[in-house]
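Section handout 9: paired folding examples.
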Amino acid sequence: MSAARIDDTDLRQLQREYALALRLLELGQQRDLEPFLREALVLVVDAVGARQGYLELEHDDLAAATAPWWMAHGFTDEQVSTVRAAVSRGIIAESLATGRTVSTASALLDPRFSARDSVRLGQIEGVLCTPIGCDPPRGVLYLQGRSEPGPFVDEEQRRAESFARHLAPLVDRLLLEYRQREQADATAPLRATLRLDGMIGRSAALAAAVRQAALVAPLDVNVLITGETGTGKSQLARIIHDNGPRASGPFIEINCAAIPENLVESELFGAKAGAFTGATGPIEGKVTAAEHGTLLLDEIGDLPLIAQAKLLQLLQSKTYYPLGSSAPRIADVRVIAATNHELGALVAEKRFREDLLFRLQVLPIRMPSLVERREDVGLLAKHFAAAACATHRLPRAVLSPGALRALEMAPWPGNVRQLENFVQAAAIRAAGERVEQIEPAHVFPETAAPAANASLTFQEATRRFQRDLLMSVLEETQWNVLETARRLELARSHVYNLIRAFGLSRHG
């Protein structure tokens, strides 16, 4: 009878381990490492009967990753900091160094760990810590606090070790896919042959625009760059200049929308002394300033019609007349125009000359919006955060994984320029709070503490709607992420990203 009970116990244990491994394999069908780790950690915490869990991967290639691959479940932010302090010295470090499970009924009373500050500060009691994989370990699984009274028992330890053993090959596969995605820099071949100073990004959409720029750069032809406001059209024009035969000459930029209409001609083409009130001496225009170099006419769609006629003459004959002068001047200048307008529509409205449009768009290039190159948002945000701290002499602050996810999920109707402004403001807010990490609340303070009667921008209203809709469906499905993803017609991994980006939790 006793033997039968032992056999029954062993059978139930095998069944539990089989069910755990099967569920883990199901989770392993995911393509994204982060949601896989999150669900896997919840699974093992429940299976072992722990109150809290922490999982971290140790891997050479993760040093340059956009976010450290660690997950916590059941810990407050302060408790997570305490646990992470134990990575380099303490329980986790010992498990990683020895490749063996560390189990203790009370870390506070265990002479191996009781003297450590992290143990005393965290009041750490029962702990079960086991490495993930071996030779060397891929990482570590740390479980703290048993849901039932007493220390972790042998069966629970075996269950955790079995989980970690099955987790290792799945982690290897997902890490390999992650590295392949990270290394897929579509701009790499271009960077090897072109001067791309200050160009941040690796997306295929950005690479496509730069390839077009590389085609026209060595040719002395006019170029029209189109794209939404704030996409980086001026930077692309600079790339064309820097990689062309006029690179040693000046690069002069003029914003046609920012000049009063009565001053456009003199700004562009210069003026003789006395040509107008206030012209006490000859005025050098931007065409003259750009001699032997490149002239960028930004917001060309806002150029007045009278100036358009003179610009057309410059493009056709390479000559121009300063205001008030009857003597033509020869111009040795390349013209690049940029606009966020649909010039064809302006032609139909008689606000833009059709013959000028034909002259400008010899080889048009479209700069993609930030939505089209969303994989570049994290790289841009990190660059802007570092630049803001350097420019304003702020203490160094880095973007938290949550802040990066929030930035990547935002719509950014103002594109790169708007992203830069938001990150700069976030860095200043973080410095004001004397913290070293920029959090989502620093980037989007209106989400963290919404004002009841505040007037919302389009972006703020969109984020508020997205957050409320997601929270509503999560509550309707009792936080069933799979069902929520189905109802919203989103990938499950995207739902997880939104939950983290908006800082949602089950209790509010």
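Moving on to protein 2 of 2.
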Amino acid sequence: GSFLMSATGIGRDTALARIIDLVRKAQSSKPAIGRLVDKIAAVFVPAVLIIASIAFALWYFFGPEPSLAYAIVVAMTVMVIACPCALGLATPISIMVGVGRAAENGILIRNGEVLQQASKLTTVVLDKTGTLTEGNPQLTTLKIASDYDDNNDDKALSIASSLETGSEHPLGLAILNKAKEQNIEYQAAKDFNAISGRGITAKIEDKEYWLGNAELMKQQNIAIDAFQTDAKELAEQGGTPIFLSDNKKLIALMGISDPIRSDSKAAIDRLHELGVKTVLLTGDNKNTAQSVAKTLGIDEVLAEVMPEDKINKIKALQQQGEIVAMVGDGINDAPALTQSDVGIAIGAGTDVAVEAADIALMRPSIDGVSKTIGLSVATMKNIKQNLFDAFVYNMIGIPIAAGILYPFFGILLSPIIAATAMSMSSVTVVSNALRLRKAKI
């Protein structure tokens, strides 16, 4: 057969091209420890030249005959054995391998600085919908108020779906899907208005309706006492209670459930094994949030948080001395992702969230968060091992090349052996960095 394909981007505009560019930039970037090593290396070279000059003078004036020959050989051996390249390679080679290993696991890291910061994280803050849950909410409960004139499920669902035609919220999609499934007709509403963190309002046939949480009903002076017990039970089961009303009284209670991702519990347990505190940050009902947190074993819950207040919650944690990662997928998560020490976006989320984050997880799972932390810890450990090897090699090799053993043992290092040792120091650093490819994360 045949098909018609529309290309929304080609060449450099494709997602794959952007991923390749992101990985290349990250591999060529340097964390703070890398910039410190660069400063040391800048001093290292002139220091070696000074040591070689001093060694030449000492051997020329106090060494055995032919003193000039000995002095030249010793000075050249010092310069040959000194290995600034081992210091220079220590950080970038590990970053290159670490970022590449991350990309293989669907983790895109913007730069080496983020990789270093991720190794220090003490707290991971997690959004709920689309992050811990599947992001595929379903309408599971619909109860009509006893005093509603049209005591009819279809009528209530028609009103709710008509209101949601102008909404972009995932919970609204659950209502629209249910109406479509039951062949419920709905019409486009007028004067639509989304009330951030509360719900929506619009007019249908010139009558005003409200759809949202308990706070929205309270704001409109709509009594919800008749459904308080049902709403509490819904929330305790991990569902989200939504109320529908006109401008006078309550019409219905709707329960929307978004299943928890099958691997979220294991991912949270892994974060705890790494010694990281977990916090659930959501605008959802407090009882719903606590139910999800209890199921997953999350340490702390910050619920019923308005989108604009999420950034303040991150700041508060940072002021307590926590190094914070924020994990989210929505537009309203973008400010918090930017404020956090490390912003992590679920790759299936909005472009705004992904753009605001330091790390993007290409797979719709928070398992990548623990892998990111594990890999960053392994990479920083690898860098420190490389630096230790490079420093120890130079601290031992340069004095021996200068002839420190000659007065005691009559041993003078050959320039050939010095050249071999210098080469092997670089090989050792590269070989150690390549171990990251097999590191357990």
